[in-house]
Amino acid sequence: MKDIGEPARNRTTAPRTPPHTASSPTGPPAGPATGANAARTPWPAVAIAMAGAFMAILDSFIVIVAGPAIQVDLGASRGELQWIMAGYQLTYAVFLVVGGRLGDMFGRKRMFVVGMTLFTLASVGCALSQAAGGLIVARLVEGLGAALMLPQVFALITVLVGEKDRHRAFGLLGVVLGLATVGGQLIGGLLIGADLFGSGWRPVFWINVPVGVGTVLLAARRLPESGWRAPGGSTSPGSPSSALRCSCSLSRSSRAGRQAGPGGPGPALPRVASPSLSSSGPNAGPPSAAVTPS
Q1: What are the beta bridge partners of residue 226?
Q2: Which of these, 234, 289, 275, 247, lies nearest to 152 by C-alpha position?
Q3: Digit-coded pLDDT (tens) for 144-197
Q4: Which among 120-124, 236-240, 282-286 has the top mean pLDDT?
Q5: CA distance 204 to 216
Q6: Distance separating alpha carbons of residues 130 and 133, to the nearest angstrom
Q7: What is the pLDDT of residue 3?
């Protein structure tokens, strides 16, 4: 007769594995979409991010057309007009790397929303300015908002779009930026020529407000949050001082370009690198992007 207790002694129970969730600390770190995740590219979220990039570049070129009208209306000197037109690019260049670093540290969605909100509020300030000095200050703040917002666009595309569609996404981004460059001059000319409600040049800034408000609301609802995560689990990507040093070098380059005079290179936005720009240090490897649902 068999011992009824023997099967119980020999029976082994496999350990139960909890289902992996996005917030499970034992699961693999979330990174750029690959494999099966690449089939579900969140194109609406990508479109929202690209809308922010479009507005940031559009605002740089739309003011070039409005410059003469601004100078006549506000009685600005040539030096003040240069600050109005190039101040935006100056703060953008100085804080570009810092903006990317802040997105890594505090969340790219959060910094995108903060940058877009600051950009929109500064546009209101530009449109309401009654003196050249006030317009210069508003333009500097506008450039700061763009510097906080635009690096997150490149990072979000890298994180959200899988390898299969990433080249297409960055190709579309290039088209968007090109349209913003050309459209800024075209839209600026149309708005100034229309002279809506006798407001002259001010609609070139008012146009940013409805687009900015809509982008902020959509981003708050549809963009997922993501941030930088080191292989050891740290969320502090390198030294902030390195970002400030790089920003200072960009500032010196901007001043050198302005000092070149009329025959030198005109004001232009600096080239934006990939999201790895914000991870510095000689031994910094490719970061893992931690994505959490909004």
Answers
A1: 291
A2: 275
A3: 999 999 999 999 999 888 888 899 999 999 999 999 999 888 998 899 888 888
A4: 120-124
A5: 19
A6: 9
A7: 52
Token pair of 140, please? 């500097």
DSSP characters for 127-195? HH--SHHHHHHHHHHHHHHHHHHHHHHHHHHHHHS-HHHHHHHHHHHHHHHHHHHHHHHHHHHHHHHHT
pLDDT band at 96 (very low <50, low <70, confident <90, very high): very high
Tell me the two tokens of residue 79: 């030096």
Q: Confidence class of residue 252 from pLDDT cuts 50, 70 and 90?
A: low
Q: Which residues contact 18 (CB under 8 A, 6 or more apart)?
A: 24, 26
Whether residue 56 contacts residue 119, with contact meaning beta carbons closer than 8 Å, is answered with yes
Contact 127, 202 (CB under 8 A): yes
Give pTM, 2 decimals.
0.68
Place of tokens 């690198």: 273
Is the pLDDT at 230 greater than 80, yes or no? no
The upper half-sphere exposure of residue 208, i.e. CA atoms within 13 Å in the direction of its Cβ, equals 33
**What residue spans of the chain are helical by DSSP H?**
6-10, 43-74, 78-106, 108-128, 132-160, 163-194, 203-206, 208-222, 240-259
Give the span between the Cα atoms of 121 and 36, in whole angstroms.
40
